[in-house]
Amino acid sequence: DEDLRREELAKLWDRYGVFVLLGAALIVITVGAYQFFQWRQNSISSENGKAFYQATQLVKDGKDSEALAAYSKLAVQAPEGYRVLANLEIAALKVKEGKKAEAVTLYDQVGKSTQDAVLKNYATLQAAALRSDEADLKEMTDRLQGLNTANNPWRHSARELLGLVAFRSGNVAESEKFFGQIRLDTQTPDEMRKRAENMLSLLVKVP
What we know:
Blueprint: H1 2-42, H2 47-60, H3 64-77, H4 80-96, H5 100-113, H6 117-131, H7 137-144, H8 155-168, H9 172-184, H10 190-203
Helix pairs in contact: 1-6, 1-8, 2-3, 3-4, 4-5, 5-6, 7-8, 8-9, 9-10
């Protein structure tokens, strides 16, 4: 039974784990666009705004090492808003370099320090997503408990991560609970509800 469970887990993760990463990428794009708009509206003429924009262009040009240096400078010298954004960008670059532990540390720092609810929740979810392959259910629950609430717009992604980690940990009942919450929530995005329904149909077959 244990071997079968591991085999089913591998199949499920191969099939659905990518959606977690895609969801995280979508969050990055959304938050980036929002922050860029704010920057354009409020800080386009400031020195720090220009420096942040130039660092972003370096990333687009594939000059990651130069971008990292630019963001690192902002993370130390810029006002709080730009420090937070710079640290988020540094964390993203660390992920590209395969340095997940360093990225998690940065995301955790942002999640604990910033007062901006959007960025706090984004950083919290990113850190949890990076830990999802290794963390146990208790760690993930501790990380995501603030997001898995009735009115939190990030609850759907939090529940999906919790459901996947619960299954990986061998807790099928908890996994069913989280995917059931996704399915029953009337505000769940359609694609995520479909994934939850597919997972639920597979979970009942696991011994």
